[in-house]
Amino acid sequence: QPRVRLFIADDVGLGKTIEAALIVRELMLRQRVRRVVVAAPPSVVTQWRQELDERFGLTFVVVDRDYLRARRRERGWQYNPWRTHTRFIISHALLRDPHYTAPLRDLLQRDPAGSLFVLDEAHHAAPASGARTTSDSAFTRTVRELAPLFEHRVFLSATPHNGHSASFSALMEVLDPSRFVRGVKVTAALRRQVMVRRLKSELRKVGVEFPERKVVQVCLRDLGPDDPDLRSEERRVGKECRSRWSP
Description:
disordered C terminus, single chain, seven-stranded parallel β-sheet
């Protein structure tokens, strides 16, 4: 792709972080990327930084309150903290805050060439409902405004589709507006051009071992009419056998 527009939608535990890091490394070696911003949920920001450093030798700076305070104390309030380094990680929570993203937006508007945006858990940026009139969340609006400023984009999510076609097309439009339009159903042919999705069931067929999740039915007998294991509507019809999920 002349400009990378890629959605990695592999199953949970199949190494989407590693795949994204391989892409970052390859683009850097080809000198097509010189500025990288990774946006991830707060709980995995440290994991991202460690994985990139230990496995690929890529040093990323975590953008948070302490980082901004230290840079402005050193260089002055007017200095753009996104100019200090070329590789950053920021949490989804702070990505919504203009205090952190406004300087990044200014920098990208002046020089978007060679910039890469990696969005982890990208499904959070999709509208919650499929209705076209539904207002976007603050995070959705932020990603829709910020992502187009990057030359390259890589989205990661094990659950890219929430069941609403319009919501999925809105997310895909952010990734690649030249192929997708919000409200227009995403076709399989177009989806295959940008999305990579591997499931554990597919890898088991080629010999990769993963624990298999099985559903086991457990019958509960001789329960009283007020037993908490029975739902109110189920007590009415007198059912005794209930299914439970078991890993």
